[in-house]
Amino acid sequence: MVQALQAIDRLTDIAGAYGAIFCDVWGVVHDGEARNPPAVAALAEARRAGAHVVLLTNSPRPAEGVREQLDALGVSRDSYDAIVTSGDATRALISAGSRRVFHIGTERNEDLFEGLGLELLAPEEADLVVATGLFDDERETPDDYVALLDRMAARNLPMICANPDIVVHRGERLIYCAGAVARAYAERGQVVHLAGKPHPPIYDVASSLLPKAGVPILCIGDGMFTDVKGANTFGADCLFISDGIHRDELADANGDPARLAEALDGRGLTARFVQPFLR
User: Fold this and answer.
1) Are 23 and 143 within one domain?
2) What is the average pLDDT score of the chain?
């Protein structure tokens, strides 16, 4: 039986029932180029109503780097209590492995490695691969990595993926993320470790920051296989943002809650609430 999906007008309609909110960032709070003012206002209002708001993002950067990005986009710090990133959870995985690392990603993501004592090497010399993104995500696709992945696979190098997202919207453009590279590498039979959504470590870190344990938690996000699946695995209610990364894929549902619920059910997923965008 398909679980009913309740459309809500505003977050404040339901926020009072939850002691904490774990909210996605990219695709909900901003699109990589501009903030979503109604979302920022809604989270600030939920905080004033008593909810502890944790921004939960698959960004490969540590929390402070994401905070700086949010500041630059004009996202008020009054709209959240804490930030937990995939990068934060990933650092623990890196710390447990070899210090001889090959990095796939841009230099701006190398703050992930600060204080870990790593040696960044070529793939022929490394013992571990850490993927934070593509080298040039504005122009490259995973197809550009076939030869590199084959070279890594020939050495059976394990990979840590700091961002399990496959794609995100940057403005109106679709940008590939580290998860797309990691998926292609796993298809070669290689070992890939992931710590971001939908996997438990990032939720464990977020839960540890709550002032009170055991409170009802609402997860908010637009990614079916990251945010919704993560909420389902974690055992929390989910507010699905339908006009996000899957807006083209779900266009035939035309925003109808029953048809959106069927789309989620067909993917083995459920959500309790839905909005086209957070407000």
Assistant:
1) no
2) 94
